[in-house]
Amino acid sequence: MQKIKNQNHQVIFDISLTKQKKEDTSEVAYQKEFFRIKEQFSNHYAVYTDGSKLEERVATAAYFPERPDCSKATCLRDGASVFSAELEGITLVLTEIKKLTKYHKNFVIYSDSLSALRAIQSKSFKVKDFRRLFNLMRKFPTYDHISFD
């Protein structure tokens, strides 16, 4: 688990699920580890995000189990990458989280995109999607705690 603290908030990246090789790990073992992570962040408001691509069509979604009305899904331009969809999903989540900070202070974002999480960790500003995402993250109040798993 890596912690990044900047001037506004603390961001934690937990990529422990990637430590095990898929071919050597049962589905039950992954589920147990996921539930362990969920327990670790049980005082956080949980949000899920995912991006997908089918042929040339690309879409992303952000799911808020406690507030389905905040959940969002959107299509990206045809031919966009799954990576862009994953980043857009996280951006959707952050946009909605910003609205919820008056009610909640700690958030955990569950994503299955290791490449997106690593890119966010590295704070790369070369891609337009990153700049928008980082600009959103900078605007969070100082007391917010956001975790990516």
From TrEMBL:
- Superkingdom of this entry's organism? Eukaryota
Q: Which InterPro entries match?
A: RNaseH-like_sf, RNaseH_sf
Gene Ontology MF: a single term:
nucleic acid binding
- Name the UniProt record assigns to this protein: Gag-Pol polyprotein
UniProt source species: Plakobranchus ocellatus
